[in-house]
Design goal:
Phosphatase 2c, domain 1; 5 helices
């Protein structure tokens, strides 16, 4: 089973639903359904107003065009990139917009994480914790500013103890490593409140936590 929880801070107010965090389950009838989880991070002043629309467009295009998890992420992000580029071509320099995105596409027991621009994730599995930011040269800059980009992809196995946290880089900066590690070891329903104690210091940020948990034992029919 996969436990999912999220929160966002919008102008200093805590919200379960926010412009930054998106959950897009597979509504089709594919034999192997895949779901998309993402966090959008405004990268320039004024970009906040574009995040909700951009988030929804990425989620819709992922499911419409995917032939693979990474292909679906790449195609959806490319479309978002071109839309922002088109806006910026028509705008004054001080009105340009840009955003980073962390995408997690999940199918069965596996997942692919794609990072571009200002974005961050934390992965806890087998007793270890790793924080990830984009490192590939083509993934460092936000969507919308340059001619091309390519996400920094990572494959993540979702065993019974795996946890994946997508979070705003500003929130990651607020979290001492030991406190992040402690939060990721808590039961999933307690982990987000522990993270929120740091998020409430920030005007805008978001987080979405996915925790793989063992399937409940099957009930035997009564005789």
């Amino acid at each position: 089973m996969l436990w999912v929880g999220q929160f966002g801070m919008v102008d200093g107010e805590a919200r379960e639903e926010s412009p930054w965090v998106g959950v897009f389950p597979d509504s089709g009838r594919a034999e192997d359904p895949s779901d998309l989880y993402l966090l959008v991070e405004p990268a320039l002043p004024g970009s906040e107003d574009f995040c909700a629309e951009m988030k929804d467009a990425i989620g819709a295009l992922f499911h419409k065009r995917k032939v693979s998890l990474t292909g679906g992420i790449l195609g959806a992000l490319r479309s978002a990139h071109e839309n922002l580029r088109d806006w910026n071509r028509k705008s004054m320099k001080d009105s340009r917009v840009a955003a980073g995105v962390a995408c997690l596409a999940v199918q069965g027991q596996g997942a692919y994480l794609g990072l571009v621009g200002p974005s961050a994730a934390a992965i806890a599995t087998n007793g270890s914790l790793h924080t990830l930011r984009p490192t590939l040269p083509d993934a460092l800059e936000p969507l919308g500013l340059f001619d091309d980009f390519y996400p920094d992809f990572s494959r993540i196995p979702l065993d019974d103890a795996a946890r994946v946290l997508l979070l705003s880089p500003s929130l990651l900066a607020e979290l001492p490593p030991e406190e992040l590690g402690a939060a990721m070891r808590l039961p999933p329903e307690d982990a987000l409140p522990a993270l929120y104690r740091h998020a409430r210091r920030l005007p805008n940020c978001g987080a979405i936590l996915l925790a793989a948990t063992p399937d409940p034992p099957e009930q035997q029919p009564a005789v």
